[in-house]
Amino acid sequence: MAFETKYGLNIAPSGLGGTAATAYVLAVRKHLMWIDGTKVGRFLLQAIGWHARHNPGNLTGGVMTIQPYTGGKCNAAADNTVRTPTGWSQPAVSYSPDVFTHGGACQEQMKKATTNRGLYPDELLFHELVHGFRGASARFSANRLHGGLAGYTGSEEFVAVLLTNIYISDPSNGSKTGLRADHDGFRPLDPYFSDSFRFFRSSSNAFALVDQLCTENPSLTKWISGVKAPFNPLTAYYADKAKARAMSNGAVSMVRDRDWQGLIAGLLSGTLTK
Fold it and tell me: Are strands 77-83 and 88-94 parallel, antiparallel or unpaired?
């Protein structure tokens, strides 16, 4: 049995043949095994595997397929294609590891610390697997974000970047870039928001999004919250929800959201937190 099978994953070298197809399968498997060697990564793979066994209808043929990425730029993708009462499901991940190897199209960008956050191959694959997991649990949505979170473009990218940042911060992950600011490029996260609690000051909507994630996927989020990583807002959320909520409703969040009416009202009433 192939390594990835136990996690409900299928590596399909679509469009490739011969040695190229074999090389693709081996390369993707290598990166999956790297993810599996970390605490956060294994939790994600185990959660995908659980849904493959217990909710196979949320996956095409009962498995999540990883296939070559044919899009441009240094990236990967995940598509959830079937609408359910709770969200989109039946995801497929598109990922091509060869663009990150020596001489690959993304090698130079990976060397730049100002534009490579979350760009290591396993980090990109992990990010797309988060999208796939959300589809496997039929929770994937596509809500547009604004204000302080506009750079994330949508709620699912917020989730994927957040969990990937925790994966990067995981001490058991021995090779990594650094925390990513949002989904708009691969820039570094502002050090101020690299604190697990201060992260909630990113926007007045930050707490609500984390709360929704933890409500919809309680097992995975609780597992990950137990990982003692320098950056782990899930740990902060489960440790003190009131504090996390207050930070999300504070002055910094309102400034980032450009919520001037709320800021003035809070200052006048004396109820606004810093």
Answer: antiparallel
User: Residue 229, CB half-sphere, CA atoms under 13 Å: how many?
Assistant: 32
Beta-carbon contacts of 134 under 8 Å, excluding residues fewer than 6 positions away, are: 80, 87, 91, 140, 156, 159, 217
Average pLDDT value for the chain: 92
Per-residue pLDDT tens over the stretch 150-183: 999 999 999 999 999 999 999 999 999 999 999 9
For the cut 90, the answer to whether the pLDDT of residue 204 exceeds it is: yes
**Both tokens of residue 242?**
């009131």
Q: Tell me how crowded residue 26 is: count the other CB atoms within 10 A of its CB.
A: 11
pTM of the model: 0.94
DSSP state of 189: P
CB 199 within 8 Å of CB 176: no
The C-alpha atoms of residue 263 and residue 62 are separated, in whole angstroms, by: 49
Residue 19: C-alpha distances to residues 16, 22, 24, 69, 216 (Å): 9, 5, 8, 18, 42
SS3 94: strand
- In whole angstroms, give the CA distance from residue 202 to residue 11: 37
Distance (Å, rounded) from C-alpha 76 to C-alpha 60? 19
Residues 6+ positions from 251 with CB-CB distance below 8 Å: 263, 266, 267, 272, 273, 274
Pairing relationship of beta strands 77-83 and 64-67 according to DSSP bridges: unpaired
